[in-house]
Amino acid sequence: MKKFHNKLKVLSLALTMTLGTVGTVSFSNSSHSYAATVVRANKVEKSNQGASFSHQLKPKQVAAAFYASYNGDLAAGFEKYISKKLVLHGFDGPMDRGVWLASDLELKGALKGYKLQVLDQIAEGNKVVTRWTLGGVHTGTILGIPASGREVHLTGISIDRIENGKSVEHWSEGNFGRFLQELQAPRTNQVTQNIKNNKVQVSSEVAANHLLKPKQVATAFYASYNGDLAAGFDKYISKDLLLHGFDGPMDRGVWLASDLELKGALKGYKLEVLDQIVEGNKVVTRWSLGGVHTGTILGIPASGREVHLSGISIDRIENGKSVEHWSEGNFGRFLQEISTPLKGK
Fold it and tell me: Residue 168: how many CB atoms within 10 A of its CB?
């Protein structure tokens, strides 16, 4: 388990930065014109060759140009768009900028046909949120795991705080546990099935909260995690919710059941909202939760340990309810924590 934890820790370094890497950056069709953003950023680059001119770019242009550099000269991209004094937040504490770059280069070289796709970008002030997915064929060694020949995929959500044309602070969450499983590394295979089996009937929805602004809706919903969670779902989560889970589309009832199980199994449970970023009707919430593991979670008995889970979620709000939800968290680390009993138990 310790070996697995170490691998996961290093992988998080590699994938905290996996916001781009080979070929061309492709963008999904959404309310924002990402292609235009990259084109504008590249025009500025060509007209002002020195990195010192990057401060002329708006935060979203900086993020777009940085991700584009992953598909070209990655080292140059870091030099232009990532501050040497970067504060890098990993799921297991502060990380190092150099390790980030080295790990991404290893990942890039180990995936044949690597492609990263930016699915969405949301910006408010100097913070830019990027939702991304990448994939390729596992043909090289990653974290000591030999080539499997399998096509593997990783999704994530990252936040960059931009100052003077560079990212000075970075957060990222991704489905690292699933990625490790695809690389044929150890992982609890029971997780997905247990989640799918935990369905509950949610209560009737109350009147729409269409008078609330998107951020107010998200704030009220996440506050319900520390109160009546089922009522929070009724009030702020649409019954027609489109829910994107770490293992593919999920069901609203499964989501509620899983979170109620988690809440009931952690003594002193508390969820804290660390940051919220809003653009239009999309709200990004960076959160952390924790408690003492005193009950069964996904079939894993109480360990007696204090455990923590952090994540980044995006909600698309319409008429006072979340109608679409994405979320990424450090689930692999969390599984490792709840699977390790305290000494003497």
Answer: 16
Phi-psi region of 149 (alpha: psi -120 to 50; beta: other; left: phi over 0): left
Choose among 113, 118, 94, 110: nearest CA to 33: 118
Residues 164 and 139: their CA atoms lie apart, in Å, by 39
Scan for tokens 């003594």, then name that residue: 267
Q: CA-to-CA distance for 77 and 343, rounded, in angstroms?
A: 46
CA-based max dimension of the chain:
65
Confidence class for position 33, pLDDT limits 50, 70, 90: very low
Measured in residues, the chain has a length of 345
Mean pLDDT, range 133-140, rounded to an integer: 91
Helices (H), the chain: 2-16, 34-47, 59-69, 74-81, 97-110, 176-182, 191-197, 214-223, 229-236, 252-265, 331-338
Residue in 230, 242, 235, 208 with CA at minimum distance from that of residue 219:
235
For residues 223 and 284, give the distance between their C-alpha atoms in angstroms, rounded to a whole number.
Answer: 15
- Residue 224 in contact with residue 231, Cβ under 8 Å? yes
* pLDDT value, residue 303: 94
The rounded percent of the chain whose pLDDT value lies above 70 is 73
- What pLDDT, in 10s, does the model give residues 78-93? 999 999 999 998 655 5
What structural domains does the chain harbor? 2-182 (3.10.450.50), 191-338 (3.10.450.50)
d(CA 81, CA 264): 43
pLDDT at 114: 87
Whether this model's pTM surpasses 0.70: yes
Please check whether residue 112 is in contact with residue 137, taking contact to mean a CB–CB distance below 8 angstroms. Answer: yes
Q: In what order do the strands lie in the sheet with 93-95?
A: 26-27, 111-124, 127-138, 151-163, 166-174, 82-90, 93-95
Strand partners for 248: 245, 246
